[in-house]
Amino acid sequence: MKKRVLMGAALAALLSVPSMAQEVLAEQSAKEGLLNVVTSPKDQLAIGADGFLGPFASEGDKVTWTVTLPKAGQYRLHLFFNAKWGGKKNTLVINGGEPQQIDFPQTSEVGEEKVIPVTLQAGSNRISFGKAPNDWGYMFVKSIKVTSH
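Structure (tokenized):
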């Protein structure tokens, strides 16, 4: 009986702690990004009726978003993606810096969110996602969100 009371009190204490919600500082859909589309006879990069941009089949296909932040620092980039055709590796580039190849697990057509830690500067930031050399492509992206770390 004593254990139940203590466990109940501990649970109540945990639930009463204010949540450390992340502040959303920027949010953009695939439609708001600047597209670089490589001409291809099939699997052309386009936004579908479901709002997902894809399939990033050709090397050089990419979308670039510009977000403005009040200060430099560590942030979380939330990338809402769909890898319905299997797990993939594709590239993220921040402000023209070193390309980062990111692993994405297979998802359903609904997709899911991948959270990636990033360092961003005060003012304007360019965030690019696409198919670089050695990437797998065949992914779909719906939106990004930048939150405080």
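The chain has one helix and eleven strands. Residues 91 and 128 are 8 Å apart (CA to CA).
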